[in-house]
């Protein structure tokens, strides 16, 4: 990859034409057609026509379908954050987000924070990316601000509550809260599915347990504590409950002796002639302290 690519703090925009080709200028129906070319652009934006395309305002007839990060400053500074939200790195030369750009939405605050703490060049590139994300989600950011102030959410914006890796706790009445880590979500027709992981003890050993829950469509805005099917507490905000759950988990692990069985096939009758047959199951014991840190990492 050429050294100059991605180092200019500018955006390069491409428009999808009628026959599927990409042009660096707007269609004739749009004012101020773009003619300049910047191969060194830090960010490339690809816009596709909306369907149906508005007739009265043709300049609003496009949506951002792809955001390509050519900037080496962005790719290096944000790699862990972007990959954790599902934004792919292509051949170590650029990172790419595709519509609906949920990963960029979840990464917005982190990108802004990295920019504030970075060198001048990286900060400028982070600010440019933040402005693009705000453009993509301009129609919902103000709505979310209002809903957040009222501690409410609507069905179509449920996805904004569940970034991958979010640690929550159940709110079941009459039962101790259980810590849950969100691994993924899926928008389905008429429902919203959440994939979750938690630590489970079956009376003999600990393990990770993956489960799902579906929230079916509801009307209007509801209180966060009354979300149908999956009441939850965001443990990134409720630090006291998070600490209590961690301490409870550590204590449980320290008090347990984890046992496991290893299967070793029986020798044949000929090999075992004249000898007392033994069980093929060999029992071993390992103190839970040897597994403690790995489970705590799941809880965190």
3D architecture notes:
This protein has 300 residues and is of the alpha+beta class. Among the domains are: 8-136, no CATH class; 240-292, no CATH class. 29% of the residues lie in helices and 32% in strands. It contains six helices and 15 strands. The chain has helices spanning 72-84, 102-117, 120-136, 138-149, 239-255, 289-299; strands at residues 8-16, 22-23, 41-49, 62-69, 88-90, 94-98, 152-154, 167-170, 179-188, 191-201, 206-216, 221-223, 232-234, 257-263, 281-287. The strands form four sheets. It has a six-stranded mixed β-sheet with strand order 2-1-3-4-6-5. Strand 10 and strand 11 form a beta hairpin. The longest helix has 17 residues, at 120-136.
How do the helices and strands line up, and which of them pair or pack?
Elements: E1 8-16, E2 22-23, E3 41-49, E4 62-69, H1 72-84, E5 88-90, E6 94-98, H2 102-117, H3 120-136, H4 138-149, E7 152-154, E8 167-170, E9 179-188, E10 191-201, E11 206-216, E12 221-223, E13 232-234, H5 239-255, E14 257-263, E15 281-287, H6 289-299
Parallel strand pairs: 1-3
Antiparallel strand pairs: 1-2, 3-4, 4-6, 5-6, 7-12, 8-9, 8-13, 9-10, 10-11, 14-15
Helix pairs in contact: 1-2, 2-3, 5-6
Could you give the order of strands across the largest sheet? 2-1-3-4-6-5
What is the SS-derived class? alpha+beta
The helix/strand series, from N terminus to C terminus, equals EEEEHEEHHHEEEEEEEHEEH
> Got a strand count?
15
- Give the terminus-to-terminus CA distance: 39 Å
Quote the average pLDDT.
75
The global form is: globular
Tell me the Rg in angstroms.
Answer: 26 Å
Largest sheet report: 6 strands, mixed
Which residues sit in consecutive blocks of at least 5 with pLDDT less than 50? 29-36, 285-290
Number of helices: 6
> Helix content range of the residues, please?
25-40%
Q: Please report which band the strand proportion falls in: under 5%, 5-15%, 15-25%, 25-35%, 35-45% or over 45%.
A: 25-35%
